[in-house]
Amino acid sequence: MTHSHNPHREHNSSDSFFDPWLSDIPLVNSPSNIIATIPGTLGYYPQESVLLIGLVPDEDHPHTPVLGPVLRADLVHAHHIRETIVTHLNGACLMYFAVIVTRIPDSDSARTAIEELDSLQCAGGHPLINVCWHVSEIAQGTPYRMIFGPEVDPDCSEWERGIVGSVIASPAMQAMRDNGTLPALTREDTFAFFDCVNDCCTNQKVVKKTQALTAAARKESDELCRKLDRCEPGAADVVRAAASALRNVKPLPLVGDDAHPTLEEVFTDESELRALIVSLNRAPLRDCLIGQAIDHPETAATALITVARNFRGVIRANALSLWALVAISRGLSSWASTALTCAQEEMPQHSMSAICLQVMATGQQQQLVTTILDGCEVACAALLAREGEGEQAA
């Protein structure tokens, strides 16, 4: 891939523990198929990793478990699994399966991870991990074997050993197939999709232009919010122009496309681009764009990812967060999680991305979109009402 290298992320990924993702797919009937769901769930093929798969009750059939949260960590971070289960899952799962992906199962890190998983117990003293398998890589036809778990009935030998089923045919791949993409080869590739191109831009003219746009947008957004406080007009027109920017660009594939067009190539109307980055500077303006982004996912995603790749700070964090909501609405929760994580890297204090990640970790991503859309309607109504009050007073 042709993305820029981000040394800051490389450092962070070695310090982070578990990435939470949600599968949202039915329970499949064998380890062969369970393991095959992992790339579609994560959005990439994990390597040298520990994966924890939680089973949760089916909403329509409470006594039937379905695949729920999937947690992934670097192999060397398996010792943080107990803390992560408490933090992210909080007793939501009926049971857990584990998968260790490594080409060197006898390495010290692999043995330590296995011992850690096998030693975990729930409150009643029973093993927390019901069964754990090893696989060298997740690809169709790759052998897997049970590392520990219950005694296997001879008629169910596939639970002890077998080969991984079709990744492409997995139900977890449905959303990716619908959006014309496949899992990335590595975790780093999914993050690289969101990299800021200005980090490696050598064209000083381009860098200076984005810096000037950023400064002007900050100044204008502050002034618009002051006008809103005084019930003076102006903000609604800017939001309308920003919404036009989300609708009027030529759409690119939502994910999986290596093309990185410039701002000029994507936004033919610079006034709409300015309105968009002004609106992405402040939450009251940003929130009014969410409905438009969800209603026009292909064009909005193109506009938002282009802005996110070319700007820093709150503009980038908000663009990534809105892009994530579009991705969730299209069934691409794993890519949404990556975008939100990048937003947190950009601004650790960014509340919208932090809240979205917390909600997604509990499996409520669709409810998240619905709730935020309701809030968007309230924000738009409030903005129009405040401008209307000012016009009436005049």
* Mean pLDDT rating: 86
Radius of gyration: 23 Å
Strand order of the largest sheet: 1-3-2-4-5-6-7
What are the secondary-structure elements, in order, as H or E?
Answer: HEHHEEHEHEEEHHHHHHHHHHHHH
Number of discrete domains = 2
How can the largest sheet be summarized?
A: 7 strands, mixed
Structural class: alpha+beta
Low-confidence spans: pLDDT under 50, at least 5 residues? 1-17
**What percentage of amino acids are in beta strands?**
5-15%
Q: Could you give the distance between the termini?
A: 57 Å
Query: What helical percentage do the residues reach?
Result: 40-55%
Please count the helical segments: 18
The tally of beta strands, per DSSP, is: 7
- 3D shape: elongated
Pfam family, one: DUF4192
Protein name: DUF4192 domain-containing protein
Secondary-structure map with pairings?
Blueprint lengths: L6 H9 L2 E8 L5 H6 L1 H5 L6 E9 L7 E10 L6 H9 L5 E7 L6 H12 L9 E7 L7 E6 L12 E3 L10 H5 L8 H6 L11 H26 L5 H14 L14 H4 L3 H10 L3 H4 L3 H6 L1 H14 L2 H17 L3 H14 L4 H11 L3 H29 L1
Parallel strand pairs: 4-5
Antiparallel strand pairs: 1-3, 2-3, 2-4, 5-6, 6-7
Please tell me about this protein's structure.
The chain is α+β, with helices and mostly antiparallel strands. The chain folds into 2 domains: 7-177, no CATH class; 193-393, no CATH class. It contains 18 helices and 7 strands. The protein has helices at residues 7-15, 31-36, 38-42, 81-89, 108-119, 174-178, 187-192, 204-229, 235-248, 263-266, 270-279, 283-286, 290-295, 297-310, 313-329, 333-346, 351-361, 365-393, and strands at 18-25, 49-57, 65-74, 95-101, 129-135, 143-148, 161-163. Strands 1-3-2-4-5-6-7 form a 7-stranded mixed sheet. Helix 5 links the parallel strand 4 (95-101) and strand 5. Helix 8 (204-229) crosses helix 11. It is elongated and about 75 Å long. The N and C termini lie far apart (57 Å).
